[in-house]
Amino acid sequence: MNFKIAVLPGDGIGPEIIEQAIKAMNAIGKKFNHSFNYKYALVGAAAIDKTGLPLPDDTLKKCKASDAVLFGAIGDPKYDNDPSAKVRPEQGLLAMRRELGLYANVRPIITFPSLLDKSPLKREILDGVDILMVRELTGGIYFGKPQGRSEDGKTAYDSCVYSKYEIERVVRLACEYALKRKGRVTVVDKANVLATSRLWRETSKKIAYDYPGTEMDFMFVDNAAMQLIQNPLRFDVIVTENMFGDILSDEASVITGSLGLLPSASIGSSTSVFEPIHGSYPQAAGKNIANPLGTILSAAMLLETGLNLTRESDALKKAAEKSLEAGMVTEDLDRSKPCSTSTLGDWISEYILHN
Ligand code: IPM
Ligand code: MN
Questions:
Q1: Which of 106, 243, 265, 291 could share a disulfide with 260, CB 3.0–4.6 Å?
Q2: Coil, strand or helix: which one is 326?
Q3: pLDDT digit string, tens, across residues 110-145
Q4: What DSSP assignment string belongs to 138-176?
């Protein structure tokens, strides 16, 4: 079959990790007889440099006209230390989430047997961890109005706002995922303090009645932060609001052994976006040392969730797992004899073609 994929490499290590994912996708295309038609587009600091805008119209058009979007990373240190910068690369990402209606970010957190000793956490609490973190992505404090400064500049404010509808659709998605897994949904909130969290709890409880095959429990976010690394095996699907999800999913990445390994899917009303959870890692840009697996595994999620190609996605995941077993790992996982970004990408596409 023919598929249209928008490719947004972005900043920092974005272009080099995306290149490896494209190699792997092409190998899948060859093996399973599909043709992927890529449309490259600018986003983030790379887009600001060329057009002045972090998400040019042309990029948004290409995304909307595609079956799925593969995204690298955005962010550039030249903006981080300049709080007065009017345009920031991150605005491109937030605008894309808003414009494409990417209401849920789905991040699987699994442990790979060959990497159990890479995590700073003890092996016995990690073995068998399989968590699906579902983060609400277009609401809450990231987008709430009003946001800004008082006239005298001495006070600043952000607003956390949620509607029932926004909560319902993401909690329903989490329940749907749970039905295909162990059936457990943990709603993480701060209902002892926040009004939005109380609406989350009230709304989620009602939705639970529609999913008799699932069991829902509730946990305060501070407790969840602790339980995640103390007893990660207790979780199946976690669903939470935007900012709690941002923080908890970075925390959960420690379980896997490296932030560089984790993929994600941002589910939209029509087109979805697939991206690694790590950032643009500017210190490593252009050095051919970054871990491409987060992006390669995001491409696997793209095949499965975005294009409904389950066998193809499994083949890609298997190749990635085999690379870990074979000790083909980048320096975030092995400082003594790491392989380069491109060597790992080549290894994975060769594996796909010959197995
Ligand atoms: C993420 C990132 C973004 C976020 C930043 C870059 C705006 O940390 O995708 O998790 O906070 O959502
Ligand atoms: Mn984040």
A1: 291
A2: coil
A3: 998 888 888 899 999 999 999 999 999 999 999 999
A4: SSGGGT-SS-EE-TTSS-EE------HHHHHHHHHHHHH
Measured by CA distance, the residue closest to atom 6 of ligand 1 is 90
Q: How far is the CA of 219 from the centre of ligand 2 (A)?
A: 21
pTM of the model: 0.94
Other CB atoms within a 10 A radius of the CB of residue 127 amount to 11
In whole angstroms, give the CA distance from residue 160 to residue 218: 20
Q: Give the residue numbers marked as catalytic.
A: 142, 190, 222, 246, 250
Question: The tokens of 199 are what?
Answer: 């609406």
Q: Which residues surround ligand 2, an ion (CB under 5 A)?
A: 246
pLDDT at residue 117 in the model: 87
Q: Each residue of 155-184: pLDDT tens digit?
A: 999 999 999 999 999 999 999 999 999 999
Q: E strands within 61-162?
A: 68-73, 102-110, 130-136, 148-149, 156-157
Q: Using an 8 Å Cβ cutoff, are 46 and 11 in contact?
A: yes
CA 105 to ligand 1: nearest atom: 9
Judge contact between 65 and 3, C-beta under 8 A.
no
Domains of the chain: 1-101+295-355 (3.40.718.10)
Q: What is the pLDDT of residues 196-207, one digit of tens each?
A: 999 999 999 999
Question: What residue owns the CA closest to ligand 1's atom 12?
Answer: 246
